[in-house]
């Protein structure tokens, strides 16, 4: 079965479900949670002459699937690596801690004898989520001022792949 549409999980609500023990897996509340799909959290040249810091900031409270964040990350990285080569440093600031659960209700004939319907609808782990509060940054890019139009284009393309609305904040470079 494929992924359910993003609108089914984009609004935060209910109890978060995230306890996964690294050292004692048997003590985890969540058993069998899938690994996050985000491949790299830091990309580019860390030691460069950067002048500005550009953030993609959420305007609303939103939950994002890890595969959507990975798609946006890949879009940004592809454009920046082609246009700027090695003159940028890019970070994904949020880690997908939350576990997405889905209740697979049977929708076939005779299912009333097999399943319990929505009576025990807790669900099984199906993926990971990033929860963003209003004003939280998802991506951060360090570049020179001359590269701002390229980075702005990359962030606009990435925000199309994500649920919710986003703004681009620019601030002077202090340190990494």
Low-confidence region ranges: none
Strand order of the largest sheet: 1-4-7-2-8
Output the number of helix runs: 2
CATH superfamily of the domain at 37-100 and 121-176: Ribosomal protein L16/L10
How many strands, what sense, and barrel or not for the largest sheet? Answer: 5 strands, antiparallel
Describe what this molecule looks like in 3D.
The protein has 176 residues and is α+β, with helices and mostly antiparallel strands. Helix content is 18%, strand content 26%. It has 2 helices and 8 strands, in the order βββαββββαβ. It has helices spanning 66-83, 148-160; strands at residues 42-44, 52-58, 62-65, 89-92, 98-102, 124-132, 137-143, 166-172. The strands form 2 sheets. It has a 5-stranded antiparallel β-sheet, covered by helices on one side. A 3-stranded antiparallel β-sheet has the order 3-6-5. The longest helix has 18 residues, at 66-83. The model has no long low-confidence stretch (mean pLDDT 87).
Q: What would the keywords be for this entry?
A:
single chain; 176 residues; alpha+beta; Aldehyde Oxidoreductase, domain 3; three-stranded antiparallel sheet; elongated
Per-chain topology:
Elements: E1 42-44, E2 52-58, E3 62-65, H1 66-83, E4 89-92, E5 98-102, E6 124-132, E7 137-143, H2 148-160, E8 166-172
């Amino acid at each position: 079965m494929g992924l359910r549409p993003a609108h089914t999980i984009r609004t935060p609500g209910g109890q978060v479900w995230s306890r996964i023990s690294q050292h004692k897996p048997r003590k985890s509340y969540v058993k069998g949670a899938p690994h996050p799909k985000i491949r790299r959290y830091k990309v580019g040249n860390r030691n460069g002459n950067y002048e500005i810091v550009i953030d993609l900031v959420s305007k609303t409270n939103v939950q994002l699937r890890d595969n959507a964040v990975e798609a946006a990350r890949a879009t940004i990285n592809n454009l920046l690596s082609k246009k700027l080569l090695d003159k940028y440093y890019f970070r994904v600031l949020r880690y997908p801690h939350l576990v997405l659960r889905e209740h697979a209700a049977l929708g076939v004939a005779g299912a009333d004898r097999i399943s319990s319907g929505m009576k025990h609808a807790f669900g099984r782990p199906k993926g990971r989520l990033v929860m963003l509060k209003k004003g939280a940054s998802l991506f951060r890019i360090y570049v020179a001022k001359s590269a701002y139009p390229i980075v702005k284009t990359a962030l606009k393309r990435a925000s199309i792949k994500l649920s919710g609305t986003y703004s681009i904040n620019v601030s002077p470079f202090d340190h990494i």
